[in-house]
Amino acid sequence: MSPDTSILRVSNVTKTYHLGNALLEKFSKNPESNSALTALDGIDLQLRKGEILALVGESGSGKSTLAKILVGSVAASTGEIQYQGSPMPARRGKDVTRRIQMVFQDPYSSLNPRMSVGAVLSELLLLHKIVPRREVRAESIRLLNRVGMEEDALDAYPSQFSGGQRQRIAIARALAVRPDVLIADEPVSALDVSVQATILELFTTLRDELGLSILFVAHNLAVVQHLSQRVAVMYLGRIVEVADTAEIFSNPRHPYTRALIESIPRMTAEGANDGIVLEGEPPSPFNIPAGCRFNPRCSFAQVACTLTDPALMPVGPTHESACIRADELPIFSSIPIHQEEL
Amino acid sequence: MTESPLLSVTDLVLGVKRSKGSTVIVDGVSFDVATGNRFGIVGESGSGKSMSLRAIANLLPAGVNVMSGSIKYNGEELVGMNRVKRRRLMGPEIAMIFQEPMTALNPVMRVGDQIAEGPRRYLGLSRKAAMELAVSMMARTGIPDPAKRALAYPHQLSGGLRQRIMIAMAISCRPKLILCDEPTTALDVTVQHQVLRLLEELCDDFGASLVFVTHDLAVVNQTCRDLAVMYAGRMVETGAVKDVFRDPRHPYTKGLLDSAPDFDQPGRALVPIPGFPPNLAHRENACSFAPRCPFVQERCLEGAPVLERVEDGRESACFFSDEIFKKVRV
Fold this sequence. Notes:
The complex is a heterodimer of chains A (about 350) and B (about 325). Chain A is α/β, with parallel strands linked by helices.
């Protein structure tokens, strides 16, 4: 893959948290007891220019940790992040920070209740010297219009808005510094369906009109399927499958992805899934299973799966999977069977 | 019908008292749930779906009152029932499962004891027998190693396990009616799938009925047989889930369905509903959906439509249901 298509490239990023007292541990009777939590365990991922890449997985899979590392609010333990081909410094300067912005999940807690919308926007515009002081108001209005809001919102406070409007304000705030990359951490999970559709539409418009690259962290696969071009599936701190959206949903090559797709609640009686239920819950990140980390829950697991820890390998032109049996998996049949409309 | 339904809610009106008059937040909700049926109530935030459910469980927040209407359980009127008598119903007859298992469980009590509390009180079991029952209920909800987990505190368990504890607690006295308030919203898809399956199985095994409140249309489709769609405190459409999803008869239901992503139709564009839900404090005598409705006509602004039969087993509160959806009423 040519390097110029990727705007962000994550190479072998890990993140471990150490809990407890290191000194106590040194003298403890059981030196094997593991107090290191592995949140991310060797992540390789690229975000291409102008694409919406979805990052999905269960809670605890490390998707939010990765998002935080990308915006720079959490430092990676090891590994490198390249932005447009050059490595990101550990402590980011104002200019690099500006280029990668984040939209948070809960618009009720991510906006300062004591700052008016205009104050939030002008603070950023002035700090980053985006526009001269006299143009700040005009620029703020332009930003609000961009996210589908009116000028009169400038003097209002976040509490005066509904959830969907607040999320628009949060997006306007992220856009204020003219970023190239937007990291959205479950931005529609807290919203009603009808509002969710408008925010999803906004993300698509932003990508098309501003050429933004968007990393969309989500757990709702139906949303992901509608919005993104590519999907990366995370499980216990690893990426287990990456592929184009249509490809991953029609031909998933990792048992975990299959289980996720089987779990999606469907909208039609015909589609109601009665397939396999994924048993149990993800194992503790303190104690990751030997071999393939998915093997205790996997219905295709064999002895070999408990011995080798599979790496992400190409299984197709735009498709990578971390399963040693990726080629042996049976044909997947959770694709819509009823196609009356066609 | 010869047999009276297990739960029958008629013209329920809930309101919040204000200094001048009161604001009606649930306006004339009526539905019946037959024994063994699974009934879904769908709507956006503020539509009154959770309040209607809480009224059945007598768990309305302070300030919200039942202003009129009736809630009959097994033929017995719950509104205005003696407090002690009503409390005795909760547990052995009616149980509730909440959205956020972390806030609904007691953080300083072992989960086993929390489950055993109901059976001890209502079934008169000894401490030991109740604990055994609690462990068996935990096993029934698919909790691995239940005897050990019964000694855990809620914070030591994952979200999925906590929700299972809530379910175990709800079914411990074998209730005939289970009320669920968005029980899977806080869970991952895989766990959600497990929990929904579990609820279905348990209802079938125990012959319990379910009232399921959610904003997720797909979840209703997976779980319930009949549903009611609520908007701005009123029911706008009722019917069997499969009919309503295939062929909605109210513009709001259609809007909801069009705005929700459907996994089986990836190519379909999502159509948001324009505008905002109305302010319930200033309710006008008009269809509450009229300001957002693409099919609005003058008549919609002159009076509020009531729920009326449009087909066998289906009702819609829209003056133009037949015209909009090109139906001939039989």
